[in-house]
Amino acid sequence: MQAAQRLTKRIIDAAQSNPDKAYCIWDSDVKGFRLRVRPSGRKTFELKYRAGRRQRLFVIGDYGAFTAEKARKAAEDAKHNASRGGDPQHEKVVHRNAATVAELIQLYLTEGRIDKPNKREFLEVR
């Protein structure tokens, strides 16, 4: 395992893929923050953290979509969230699986309102 070093553009650009397996370069500034270099050459920023007693992995994003500084800031924010009892990876999954506005509109158009307002409710709304 390599010694941790501050992830910079120069270090990330110099990281070569290993055709046999993926490897990680750990950041020295933020504990748990790393760059994973895959055999395909894809470089991804990740954060290992604990949520309760479980060790979790939060995938921040690919190098190119994120700079090292933006990814480090996202890792710090996620770590801060986890230290307050949150779980950034779980929140990401919940957000991804949430219904979109288009899906909600389609549901409303196909099923309509579940119950129609009666006269008293209608007058209260006015």
Q: What report would you give on this structure?
A:
This protein has 126 residues and is of the alpha+beta class. It has one domain (9-111): Double Stranded RNA Binding Domain, CATH 3.30.160. The chain is built from five helices and four strands. It has helices at 9-14, 68-83, 88-97, 101-111, 119-125, and strands at 23-26, 33-37, 43-51, 54-62. It has a four-stranded antiparallel sheet with strand order 1-2-3-4, covered by helices on one side. A hairpin with a 5-residue loop joins strand 2 (33-37) and strand 3 (43-51). The mean pLDDT is 86.
Q: Write down the oligomeric state.
A: single chain
Give the CATH H-level superfamily: Integrase, DNA-binding domain
Any idea of the CATH class? Alpha Beta
Output the CATH topology. Answer: Double Stranded RNA Binding Domain
Question: Helix-strand pattern, N to C?
Answer: HEEEEHHHH
- The CATH level-2 architecture is identified as 2-Layer Sandwich
| SS strand fraction | 15-25%
Percentage of residues assigned to helices: 25-40%
Q: What's the Cα radius of gyration?
A: 22 Å
Structural class: alpha+beta
User: How would you sum up the major sheet?
Assistant: 4 strands, antiparallel
